[in-house]
Amino acid sequence: MADDGSGQDFHDAEDPRLAALDERLRQARAAEAARSGVKQDGGRGYAQGNRVIAALIGSLVGSALIGWLIDRWFGTTPWGLIVMLFLGIAVAFRQIIRIGNERPE
Q1: What is the rounded CA–CA span in Å between residue 32 and residue 52?
Q2: Is the peptide bond before 78 cis (omega within 30 degrees of 0)?
Q3: Element (H, E) at 43
Q4: Is 76 among the domain residues?
Q5: Cα–Cα dist 19/60, whole Å
Q6: SS3 at position 77
Q7: Is residue 25 part of a domain?
Q8: On the CB side of 78, how many CA atoms lie within 13 Å of its CA?
Q9: Is residue 2 part of a domain?
Q10: Domain count, the chain
Q11: Average pLDDT score, the chain
Q12: Would you say residue 51 lies in a domain?
């Protein structure tokens, strides 16, 4: 860091040229997003997609595990697994519909 001898630290001061550049960059990004039709907030959609995938996989794997355990304990092979898989699919679709119907912030 070069010392100009004045004893003042200019790194904390607001530079009007940098502020103007930041403002122009923000406007250019907003204009480009409007021109290309791309929304700037992609985080919410990505998070919602992850929730849908987790609901689908979790419901199917969980219900398959419970169905398999029921078959092992009661000797009802393969009916416990089949019934629980259908219930897991129903639960997964119900959760996906609920996630899809959430209001945006």
Answers
A1: 30
A2: yes
A3: helix 43-74
A4: yes
A5: 52
A6: coil
A7: no
A8: 4
A9: no
A10: 1
A11: 85
A12: yes
